[in-house]
Amino acid sequence: MAKVLVVGQGGREHALVWKLSQSPKVSEVFCAPGNAGTAEDATNVDIAADDCERLAAFAKENEIDLTVVGPEVPLVAGISDHFKAQGLRIFGPSKAAAALEGSKIFCKEIMRRANVPTADYWIFTDATDAVQFVQEREEESFVIKADGLAAGKGVSVCSNKADAIEAIHQMLTQKVFGDAGKKIIIEEVLEGQEVSVLALVDGRTIVTLEPAQDHKAAYDGDEGPNTGGMGAYTPAPFATPELIDEVISKILIPTIHTMRKNGSEFKGVLYAGLMLTKQGPKVLEYNVRLGDPEAQPVLMRLKSDLYEVLFAAADGKLKDLPDLEWDDRSAICVVMASEGYPGPISKGHSIRGLDEAAKTPETKVFHAGTAIDGGNVTNTGGRVLGVTSLGNDLSEAKKRAYEAIKCIRWQGAWCRKDISDKARSSEPAPE
């Protein structure tokens, strides 16, 4: 029987722990550092997600068969290289390959070389030059991105020049994202439906997961500032099999091929954030790990043994596996957040009603920013819980998720009320 270590402490990691622990081949799952939810479904280990030395030592000492890395920070720091150098099996890209997420400029350069469709872009290191560029352009809307990692918050979609100039000054002058904002990209704004396509890659073989749609804006109707994600659902009805074939042939395969030619072979999860424009799908961003909150509803629908799949991917043997099996039903994840998120938050409040929420049919409450304090579960982060439900259609899944949410209370808790509505408006009426 296998032992598995999941690295990270968010909702995606709780979903990974929950799914991996269901494998008949797995005897024990550890999570480092984990949260209050992973403590119920696994054994938490008090080691930070970016402490590669101690994590590798733990994996050796406890004879871990497979380590699965959730968040981007340790991947960009090179945790996979560190583990592999010590003969430890790990699922996640190398430091060189993780630069696809670690540097938006590197990502754009790879896409340009691979001829992958994406937004036009311009690179700046000087605020005066960037402001002058914006002022001289005819268009009013721009996307301003910090080059490096900024915890999902380094992107500003600006509908006018004043907002764009403010975003430029925040990154290059005020340095709100530190070194991550030393260089910025200014992009054209793409219009259309957003969809997330996640693929497991073992260097050569690509296996796509079921497509999902994330909701980045803080408030209903896609209003307000960008967040790490306020909810997601799957399947996304506009992500047809024909579209997925096009994404594989025109986006994923050229990217993986170009990465290999670049000397940075990709093994791990390649997450393509896409905009479905009138000219076809275009890449908004690449991530190098499962999305959060997309992982929660996607893994809820996965029927295949996740341990088997990730073990094969880590060993470069995805081609030997049968096709993934999926639950035909819909799944939705609604994020419950702390007061103030995505800005400064109020934390340390006791969360009530989790046991009651857990009684909702076909529902799992995944923990993200939680801890156990004196026997109580408290909120410790901006995104606190991902309430995730299955249903025969999105309407039923949404109804269940929000029923569970009604049970849960803490001071300042809030969520969006419209997760999945964009898809539900296109669902066929019941017979």
TrEMBL record:
Protein's pathway: Purine metabolism; IMP biosynthesis via de novo pathway; N(1)-(5-phospho-D-ribosyl)glycinamide from 5-phospho-alpha-D-ribose 1-diphosphate: step 2/2
The keyword Glycoprotein belongs to this UniProt entry's keyword annotation: no
Cofactor names: Mn(2+); Mg(2+)
Molecular function as annotated in GO: ATP binding; metal ion binding; phosphoribosylamine-glycine ligase activity
Keywords in alphabetical order: ATP-binding, Ligase, Manganese, Metal-binding, Nucleotide-binding, Purine biosynthesis
The enzyme's E.C. designation: 6.3.4.13
Membrane spanning stretches: none
Family matches, as PROSITE patterns: ATP_GRASP (PS50975), GARS (PS00184)
This protein's record includes keyword DNA-binding: no
Pfam family, one: GARS_A
Gene3D superfamilies listed in its UniProt record: 3.40.50.20, ATP-grasp fold, A domain (3.30.1490.20), ATP-grasp fold, B domain (3.30.470.20), Phosphoribosylglycinamide synthetase, C-terminal domain (3.90.600.10)
Top-level enzyme category: ligase
Catalysed reaction, written as an equation: 5-phospho-beta-D-ribosylamine + glycine + ATP = N(1)-(5-phospho-beta-D-ribosyl)glycinamide + ADP + phosphate + H(+)
InterPro entries: ATP-grasp (IPR011761), ATP_grasp_subdomain_1 (IPR013815), PreATP-grasp_dom_sf (IPR016185), PRibGlycinamid_synth_ATP-grasp (IPR020561), PRibGlycinamide_synth (IPR000115), PRibGlycinamide_synth_C-dom (IPR020560), PRibGlycinamide_synth_C_sf (IPR037123), PRibGlycinamide_synth_CS (IPR020559)
Domain ATP-grasp: from-to ranges: 108-315
GO biological process, one term: purine nucleobase biosynthetic process
Family membership: Belongs to the GARS family.
The protein's name in its UniProt record: Phosphoribosylamine--glycine ligase
Organism in which the protein naturally occurs: Thalassoglobus polymorphus
Gene: purD
